[in-house]
Design a protein that fits this description.
513 residues, alpha/beta, Archaeosine Trna-guanine Transglycosylase, Chain: A, domain 4, seven-stranded parallel β-sheet, 14 helices, binds calcium ion
Length: 513
């Protein structure tokens, strides 16, 4: 990258821009157009393009991200301490009416090699998942898992992996309390993720509150072949000692692996992708490079007929007007409003609000507050009309761009997107995170070239080339689209190659007893 001072302004109304150069720029730096910095400004942080009077709005992405607490000089560093964050838009007032953009032009001719499932979904991986009703069985299951990986998996080369859906729920919980339906339906829908091939294997204890029939009610499985479902209960009298429990689990696993191993990849249209979008460890470049490129790619996916989910409620809360006006119809607009209002109430119970979202790393990376972070986060949803809303733990059942209402916490969001049926995950990061999931490939996109270079064996794509002018948002979006089709067809991501897997973490808003 050239060493000439560079800055990026996102919208013509903006009175701030961010510094692009690695290491930031010292006071006295003069830009090509004559603008001179009066403070040192770190990389990714904002500088004032004009003098801003006290009380005046500071505009980024064309929206007010805060009001100046004191006069700000031209060329000054606009950091979080200078900004008074705006109030959140009340959700009980009338919001704009949906005025969705016209549907995007279809994009035909793109496909990948996937695994077709009996329920109509398509997997990008061929994985045996073992569901559990309760944490009590985790130790036994982990021993079984070690043996399955060592003794059985090598016999079934078409099976990619075996994963346990381990969790802290299932007992010692107020199972009928409001909110308890969320972890329960999450576990049910996780078992049905397309990457698990329709094989549902369940290990339970016996005395727990979350009984197998409550987790997977008879008749609830969209699987024609009853053989594809099996249960092992550790407290059954047939089990004499640990060894017999392990033998039962291994015997069931073997039957599932036999069937999974017979599956073959086949050519399927790109419309079978169910893509979950997420960001984490965000910086000011997230909303300039990686997220806009992902937004462009999201539009390509929607045009190809795929399902694309954006999530992270606290990171889109301040974009509520934009989301509601993008809703495909009034019903979707109401559902967006309902989910955001539910989450406001949830945060209020913890005496928190959306401002609890931003981390020290976000702020060090140049994001002053949640409003600025939200505007940079929501651009990854692209421009398509919002076709539907998926409440937490529910499975997505329509195509197009969907708002899957989940917390922003990386692991909770990823888990809920898996429950929604995600078969491909894209994760943008500026500060850097080694995030990965065992159940689904995760493509990690760096917002800055410096991160992509330093984490050369962790980042799958360098969107920092947009900031340096080497790539455009459009070319990067296309590159990501093609990478996604390759990964969906079996190409392994860095986190898969290293086996970097985070735990699945349930969103469990109901009380523990
Ligand atoms: Ca996140």
């Amino acid at each position: 990258m050239s060493t000439a001072p560079r800055r990026i302004r996102m919208h013509e109304r903006d009175n701030v821009a961010i510094v692009v150069n690695d290491g930031g720029l010292p006071a006295g730096t003069r830009f090509e157009d004559g603008l001179c910095l009066v403070d040192a400004v770190p990389q990714g942080h904002k500088l004032a393009l004009h003098a801003i009077a006290a009380g005046q709005p500071v505009l980024r992405y064309g929206v007010c991200i805060g009001h100046a607490r004191q006069p700000i000089a031209t060329g000054a560093w606009v950091h979080e301490r200078l900004l008074q964050m705006p109030e959140a838009r009340a959700l009980d007032q009338p919001l704009p009416r949906p005025e969705p953009a016209p549907a995007l032009a279809p994009l035909a001719g793109y496909s990948f090699q996937g695994y077709r499932n009996a329920d109509g979904s398509v997997g990008t991986r061929n994985i045996l998942a073992i569901s559990t009703t309760v944490q009590c069985v985790a130790g036994v299951l982990n021993l079984a898992l070690q043996r399955i990986k060592a003794e059985l998996l090598p016999l079934y080369p078409n099976v990619d992996d075996v994963v346990a859906i381990e969790h802290a729920y299932g007992c010692g919980v107020a199972i009928d309390a409001p909110g308890a339906e969320i972890p329960i339906r999450t576990l049910r829908n996780l078992a049905l993720n397309p990457n698990f091939g329709g094989e549902v294997m369940l290990v339970s204890l016996g005395c727990e509150k979350l009984q197998p029939d409550r987790l997977l009610p008879p008749g609830s499985l969209p699987i024609a072949d009853a053989q594809a479902s099996s249960r092992v209960r550790l407290q059954d009298e047939q089990h004499v000692g640990l060894g017999s429990m392990l033998d039962s689990i291994l015997a069931q696993a073997r039957a599932h692996l036999e069937r999974l191993n017979r599956r073959q990849r086949e050519t399927v249209p790109a419309s079978e992708l169910v893509v979950g979008l997420q960001c984490g460890g965000s910086d000011a470049f997230s909303g300039v490079t990686a997220n806009p490129a992902l937004g462009f790619c999201a539009d390509l996916l929607v045009r190809a007929g795929a399902t694309v989910m954006f999530s992270e409620v606290t990171e889109v809360r301040d974009a509520v007007d934009q989301l509601v006006s993008r809703a495909a119809d009034a019903e979707v607009a109401e559902a967006i409003q309902r989910e955001l209002a539910w989450y406001d109430a949830y945060l209020q119970r913890g005496r928190s609000d959306r401002s609890a979202n931003t981390t020290p790393g976000n702020k060090a990376g140049g994001l002053s507050n949640i409003v600025e972070k939200a505007m940079g986060s929501v651009v990854k949803s692209g421009t398509a009309p919002i076709a539907g809303v998926v409440p937490p733990g529910e499975r997505a059942c329509s195509k197009g761009l969907l708002f899957a209402a989940t917390p922003a916490s990386d692991f909770v969001c990823g888990t809920l997107q898996l429950a929604a049926g995600m078969n491909m995950h894209v994760f943008t990061t500026g500060r850097g995170t080694p995030y990965g999931l065992a159940a689904c490939p995760v493509i990690k996109v760096a917002t800055r070239t410096e991160l992509a270079t330093r984490w050369h064996d962790l980042m799958d794509l360098d969107a920092g080339r947009i900031a340096s002018g080497e790539a455009s948002i459009e070319t990067m979006g296309w590159e990501l689209f093609h990478l996604m089709l390759d990964v969906a067809s079996g190409r392994r991501t860095w986190s898969e190659r290293w086996g970097l897997h985070n735990a699945m973490v349930l969103f469990s808003p109901a009380p523990i007893t």
